[in-house]
Amino acid sequence: GEVLCASANGYGKRTPVNDFPTKKRGGKGVIAIKTSERNGELVGAVSIDETKELLLISDGGTLVRTRAAEVAMTGRNAQGVRLIRLSEEETLVGVVSIEAVEDEEELLEGEVDTTETDSEEAVSNNEDTSEE
After folding, report:
1. Which of 5, 68, 71, 113 has its CA 20 to 30 A from that of 130?
2. Whole-angstrom Cα distance, residue 4 to residue 80?
3. For the whole model, what pTM was predicted?
4. H-helix or E-strand containing 11?
5. CA 127 to mean position of chain CA atoms
6. Which of 88, 79, 101 is CA-nearest to residue 58?
7. Domain spans of the chain?
8. Phi and psi angles of residue 15, each rounded to the nearest 5 degrees, phi first
9. 76 with 15: CB under 8 angstroms?
């Protein structure tokens, strides 16, 4: 397996899990990606393999889907490569690993899940209590 690390300024990298040494109790940890003025802070780290795709999400609403295999494999202590182009005002706020879709038409023809989530129910419940 591999770990993909993404930083606030849109940079990231793929690193083999075996590059991360195991630590015992009291260990200080290891550097997964260098945080610098160029990279910014670490936004997320996800477990991936070459069959996965990534969703990169910015605070400006930009959403990019890309194959995990397209991200360069680098060493554990490297700065990484550009994952997403962001404007000066935008920062990367999330990275998610998803199953790859073989056919674009599958995506378009797929069934839409219209069930209400817990968070939507909580919002509607809060609206009801605020009117009392």
Report:
1. 113
2. 10
3. 0.72
4. strand 11-16
5. 32
6. 88
7. 2-104
8. -135, 135
9. yes
